[in-house]
Amino acid sequence: xxxxxxxRLARGLDLSNPAFVFAFVWLLALVLTTLxxxxxxxxxxxxxxxxxxxxxxxxxxxxxxxxxLNSGFQRxxxxxxxAAELHQLEGFARVVGWFAIAGSLFExxxxxxxxxxxxxVGDTTRDYRDFGIPTFHGLVTSAYMFxxxxxxVLFAATGRRMAIWHGVLLLAWPLVIINRAGFVWTLFQMxxxxxxxxxxxxxxxxxLVATAASAIMVFGLVGDARVGVGRVFIDSxxxxxxxxxxxxxxxxxxxxxVYITSSVNNLAAGIGxxxxxxxxxxxxxxxxxxxxxGALFNVGARKYSxxxxxxxxxxxxxxxxxxxxxxxxxxxxxxxxxxxxxxxxYFRAKSGEVWAILGFAIAFEAMA
Length: 368
Description:
15 helices
């Protein structure tokens, strides 16, 4: 039987609702892209609008359907993992964590340093893209993200403050290797794990807003470091029609705008550019080491799933791989099926099952 804390779990908002998360993120991205505050943004084709709106409808229907099947779900309180489950999780996470540490140290030795160090000493012969051993680096990153997410699960379920501080300190590693994407992925997985276990009170919302603002500031520093010219680059792509305040606020907020809108912009530019491959190459590429992926799907595929408006702004979304592999309609169907899995994980996680909480954290990151 699951442990529960009725009073705490009954209070606040459930911001982990997958239908809400998907709709909020994609509607926000569409609106921000439509504003065209940066010069690289182009118009959004009607087919892309319908694809996104259609999938907002499908995830909403999945959520309504599961709610009906789980009669009285909204009146029930979420469960928490048992002490035995948390003990098992901590034991397994410890092993994974040591692998992540050992693997990262090995990569540092092989690379003779880390990207932040190279940047600080003025080493122009290499940058963040040269760090890490192909294939192995993906395994190490996955282990790091898993271990960091378990810190948040332990904190959310037990209130142990050491776990949350441990998780926050670990967020420094993507900054050391100037891995902006890794920083964002980890942050969203941590958020998903926290929100699925705990409802959000007004005080928690204020903390989340402050945390998000801090993360955006750091995001800007990493973005400026990656291009190597401070905020000169980001200022150069601000549209002349954009509000003047964009030139004053910290660069992190502009980088966040670019990061959010580039995923939509690259989709807009890439739709119809290539014929679908009709094999799950780009949509599953990240799941396999590059050597295995190339052997499974010998399609001689290009580097990016869809063409980029600007190679320096290569932010993408799951839609890019699905559209490249199966076209717009096929991408909509595939996304609807993935949404079904996400909603199913959401309801299982709400019962306090550890594996479902961790699985939903990944689904939350994918939706966000």
